[in-house]
Design goal:
Shape: globular
Bound molecules: protoporphyrin IX containing FE
Structural class: alpha+beta
Distance between the termini: 27 Å
Order of helices and strands: EEEHEHEHHHEEHE
Number of strands: 8
Strand order of the largest sheet: 4-1-3-2-8-5-7-6
């Protein structure tokens, strides 16, 4: 299913901050909603980003099983904070072969191993958009309880210090809150 992240005047999530991390940011808006893209066509908004939840690319069977054993789903009542982080990687990244990308992603950067330290407090969902003609390659989405926000910030610092992140050429943090 193609999902749309629609920023504008209405939506379940209040946008508390829009922070450009690398490259151009996104316009400020009051609220954000996550909807089926087919429904978003008739909705007005400040900006819209589309993505598709897809199959895994890099996780091994063992890593996927380890993740399934600890991760929790979206929509937990206590998870009143969310962060949408759209990311685009460089042409150098996309010119690499699959095995080279996997090697940088996990054996060098330990993306999954680092991320596991923050589960199950942080729930996550990854949408792909590189092949949709979108300005980003990925829409990453995270939900957690307010008391885990500082742990999430620590996770961001660790990931951004990795070799994988040297290939990130555009990244924006959209911080969200719901009552
Ligand atoms: C909460 C802990 C996290 C865990 C457990 C985690 C785990 C994973 C895993 C297993 C994948 C690979 C999926 C596949 O096999 O295709 C992945 C991909 C990805 N994650 Fe994370 N992640 C976490 C946090 C983050 C954060 C905070 C960000 C952004 C700041 C992020 C950005 C990405 C991106 C952009 C991809 C796609 C990479 C690519 O295909 O090139 N992740 N993550």
């Amino acid at each position: 299913m193609r999902t749309a992240m629609l920023a504008g005047g209405t939506g379940e999530w209040e946008i508390t901050a829009v922070r450009p991390v690398a490259g151009p940011g996104l316009d400020a808006a009051a609220r954000l909603r996550v909807v089926d893209a087919a429904l978003a066509d008739h909705m007005a908004g400040a900006w819209r980003l589309d993505g598709i939840a897809s199959n895994i690319r890099y996780a091994t069977a063992r890593e996927a099983a380890d993740l399934r054993a600890v991760q929790e789903g979206l929509g937990r009542p206590a998870a009143r904070r969310a962060v949408l982080i759209p990311i685009a990687k460089s042409p150098q990244w996309w010119a690499l072969a699959q095995d080279e990308r996997r090697h940088i992603f996990e054996e060098t950067s330990h993306h999954t191993a680092i991320g596991m330290d923050y589960l199950p407090a942080v729930a996550r969902k990854l949408y792909h958009c590189r092949d949709l003609g979108q300005p980003f390659d990925f829409l990453t989405w995270f939900e957690f309880a307010p008391e885990h926000e500082s742990a999430f910030d620590a996770l961001l610092l660790r990931l951004r210090a990795t070799r994988e992140w040297t290939y990130v050429e555009r990244e924006v943090e959209v911080r969200l809150s719901r009552p």
